[in-house]
TrEMBL record:
It holds the Pfam family CsbD. InterPro entries: CsbD, UPF0337_stress_rsp, YjbJ_sf. This is CsbD-like protein. Transmembrane segments: none annotated. It comes from the Bacteria. Belongs to the UPF0337 (CsbD) family. Residues 4-52 form the CsbD-like domain.
Length: 67
């Protein structure tokens, strides 16, 4: 399922493409920047989820060891 950041990356790519087609360097650069920022946010979200999953795994292991 696409995340909000995937949508923002696509939006940035479109904006960048429009800037290239029209010769508008400002729009092109803004679109490229939006893509990069959205990708960074997506990676951060994925990392957060991975860490949370690891923490839950450790908690479950500790609970099993306590029994």
């Amino acid at each position: 399922m696409p995340t909000e950041e995937k949508f923002n990356q696509a939006k940035g790519a479109i904006k960048e493409g429009v800037g290239k087609l029209t010769g508008d360097k400002k729009t092109e650069k803004e679109g490229a920047a939006e893509k990069v920022v959205s990708k960074a946010k997506e990676v951060a979200e994925d990392t957060k989820e991975a860490v949370e999953g690891a923490i839950e795994g450790v908690k479950n292991m500790v609970k099993k060891d306590d029994k």
